[in-house]
Specification:
about 325 residues, alpha+beta, Alpha-Beta Plaits, 2 domains, five-stranded mixed sheet, two-stranded antiparallel sheet, about 70% helix
Amino acid sequence: MFQRLRSDFRLSIITLLGLSGFLGITPFAVLRFHQGDVVTGVVDVLILGGVFGGVAYAWLTGDTRRSGFAMAIVASFGAVVVAGLVGDPGLFWLYPCLITSFFLTPPRVAIAINVSSVVLMVVLGDAFSGLEQMGSFVSTALVVSACAFVFASRNEDQRRRLEHLATIDPLTGVKNRRAMDEELAIAQAHASRTGISCALILLDIDHFKQINDEYGHSVGDQVLVELVKVLRKNTRKSDQLFRYGGEEFVLLLPDGAGVRTVISNLQQLLRTHVKHPGGSITASFGVAELDWGETVDSWLARADDALYQAKETGRNRAVYAEPRIRLISQTA
C-alpha cells in the first residue's frame, strides 16, 4: 500500500485529498443534522460519498485521471450547492475546491471547472448578501485560480521532465529498466485479464566488450544508437523497446505471433545496417512467451536463461524458452 502511494504521485494526492475531505466535511455534516438542517446534511454526505467513490475507484482501477476529474466536479459543484443553502458561510468552502481542482485534474481542465463553478455561484446568487460581496468573491476566486494555474502548470512541466529523466535512457532515447519493470507488470496484468499472451525478447550484442576495448567507448555508444534506430524502424508501434543494461535490450511484443519471423528479420537487419570499424555486429536472442498465471520475475528469468544458452552455444542465434509448466513438470 505505502509502496504504491510512494510510486504513484496522482494516487497519493487523491488519497490525501480524500482524507482531508473526510476530516473537513464530516464534522459539519454531523452539525447540520444536529441542527435539523437535513437538506444541507444530506448534501454534505453526498459530497463525502462522491469523494470516497473517487478514491476507491482510483485504488481499484489505477485510473487517477477519471477519478480525479469526478472528485473535482463533486467537490466544486457540491460547494456551490452548500453555499446556496447556507449563505455566506458556504462561500469559504469553494476556495479550497478552487485550489484542489488543480491537483486532481490538468491545469486547463481545472480552469474550466473553476470558472464554471464561479459562474454558477453568481447565476444562483443565493449565497451573496449584495453586489459588493459578489464582486469581491468573483475577484478573489479568479485571483486564486490564476495563481493556482501558474503553480500547477510549472509543477506539471517539472514533473514531466523528472519522469522523462527517470524513465528514459539518455544515450539511446529508449525506456530504461525502471520503465521496463512497470510496463512488464502492466503487460502481465493485461494478459491475466484477457488471456492474450505476449512475448519477451532479450537481445545482447555479441562481443560488445571487444568493440569497446579495440575502438573506444564512443564507437560502442554509436553502435548502441544505430542498433536502437534499426529496432525502432523495424518493429511495430505496439512493440516496446527498453535498454536493460549495457549492451542488453528488451523487446516487449503484445503477442507472440510471428516472433520467429521478427527475430529472423532483426538478425539480418542488424548484420546489414549496424557496423563498426571491424565489420558488422551480430546479436544473441533469448525469447519467452508469458505463460498463464506466470509472474513477471519468472517470465524475465526464463528469457534471461534462454539468452544465456544462446551466448553459450555460439552466439548469433535465438533460443526459445520452454513453457514454465513444462519446466515444472520436468523438475518434479
